[in-house]
Amino acid sequence: MPLLDRIVVDPEIVHGRPAVRGTRVRVTDVLSLLAAGASEAEILEDYPYLTADDIRACLAYAAAQADHPILLAS
């Protein structure tokens, strides 16, 4: 499964915020844990239903969202 297929946006799941498929764990939750210094192993211990690929999918999703076109002024 491609990494980004692990992320879903569904209005019925966590109010439409991006989440890991099959869970109610938001992408922002995983990113916040990583930003706070949690290791992949710590996250997987606290959320045993996640996988290492789920964590990588959250990072890939965030990277894709941050890559926006640059608008040049004329």
TrEMBL record:
InterPro entries per record: DUF433, Homeodomain-like_sf, WH-like_DNA-bd_sf
Pfam families xref list: DUF433
Name of the protein in question: Uncharacterized protein (DUF433 family)
